[in-house]
What we know:
The chain has helices spanning 3-11, 18-29, 35-48, 52-63, 91-101, 120-124, 136-146, 159-169, 177-190, 211-227, 249-260, 266-282, 289-301, 304-315, 321-324, 351-363, 402-415; strands at residues 79-83, 106-109, 148-151, 195-202, 231-238, 246-247, 334-339, 344-349, 377-380, 387-388, 393-399, 416-419, 429-430. By secondary structure, it is an alpha/beta fold.
Amino acid sequence: xxxxxxxxxxxxxxxxxxxxxxxxxxxxxxxxxxxxxxxxxxxxxxxxxxxxxxxxxxxxxxxxxxxxxxxxxxxxxxxxxxxxxxxxxxxxxxxxxxxxxxxxxxxxxxxxxxxxxxxxxxxxxxxxxxxxxxxxxxxxxxxxxxxxxxxxxxxxxxxxxxxxxxxxxxxxxxxxxxxxxxxxxxxxxxxxxxxxxxxxxxxxxxxxxxxxxxxxxxxxxxxxxxxxxxxxxxxxxxxxxxxxxxxxxxxxxxxxxxxxxxxxxxxxxxxxxxxxxxxxxxxxxxxxxxxxxxxxxxxxxxxxxxxxxxxxxxxxxxxxxxxxxxxxxxxxxxxxxxxxxxxxxxxxxxxxxxxxxxxxxxxxxxxxxxxxxxxxxxxxxxxxxxxxxxxxxxxxxxxxxxxxxxxxxxxxxxxxxxxxxxxxxxxxxxx
Length: 431
Ligand code: URA
């Protein structure tokens, strides 16, 4: 088989066989197929799509490109959660310690930023010393001992996705249902999950812009899960405006910490509560949503959720003093509050524009080798539907270079639109 023939076949809109997909994925993982060929292939998939059969084969091939974990000796139901990616989405950093504090052991493999959407690993690396490269043995030991792990993909789980994910980030090939579905589900299957909560984001700052696309992605992942014998629960959540206030790595860690302390923005807090509830029910820790919610509120209130986060940071080599004194995190050099240019109802806070501006500030990558600037980003102070008075603080920019600061102010102003007549608030979730 030749890689070029497989690329051509997909370019010409034909269905790839299981053996063709397997050959391509395994050879790419071994480094026998180059990044430029994989980029061309990913673009052909993005443009021409895949059948459900191809998507399932791609998922299983990526899951089998490395080890597949069996955690049944540690946890009865291995519950995992995954978001399809959004702006200001720091949910994992709050939800994992909460459910772990409720007694649901949870080990998760997270990803880096992808396009305009931030990544949990980049955020966690804001904490000095935090190690996102655990071995399988370390992963299992930590899960057994403290019931929580939050690491990256280096432990030879779905290495094909690790490579493709980084490539898609910088080749304009993120926004594809088969590529997203297989990327997420291959990681979940390889990490040994038996039950998965999938947070499918929809809107301007999501990879799925319409409810129809988001539903299709949710259905695709559910059917892959069923074929692979996994339970899947999907939630469709709004991503037209950023989630919470903070966008940018350190800022988001701080907001997750505030939430674990019982504060945090109302929308983010509620989003986390719903995700935790689904996880606790799937993981057989609670029978009903009310019971799960009460457990979540209790572990936040009594400090055990925050304590779980502290244990996680210590176990993974991070400096826990940053958990106790978030003011120790480095601030950006320039912190500018921008005021509302006029009065009106906020009709849009364009999440994608904010996400892209945040990448431009240095919070994400333009090419694979780019370093992340952890201290930069935005605080987006208002939500769609709110009435804003001219001169009220609208957002705060955190920048390290004056030129980037100026561009960020302009972009974030453009992201905010006003209306003279009342505007409906956006829902957190869709059916
Ligand atoms: N999250 C993933 O893990 N992969 C994608 O492709 C998109 C979001």
